[in-house]
TrEMBL record:
The chain crosses the membrane at residues 6-26. Keywords: Membrane, Transmembrane, Transmembrane helix. The keyword Transmembrane applies. This is Uncharacterized protein.
Length: 44
């Protein structure tokens, strides 16, 4: 377990940030990805 404390810290802090920003960020990323895909499809 010697190499892991940093990784666990990053993971836990990522979880906390995810909980704080949570659904808003998921929604933003989801719509952004949909728009990107739509633009790529339209240009081809």
């Amino acid at each position: 377990m010697d190499g892991y404390p940093g990784y666990i810290l990053v993971f836990v802090s990522g979880l906390m940030v995810g909980c704080i920003l949570g659904h808003r960020w998921i929604r933003i990323v989801y719509y952004w990805a949909q728009n990107k895909i739509r633009h790529l499809r339209d240009h081809n």
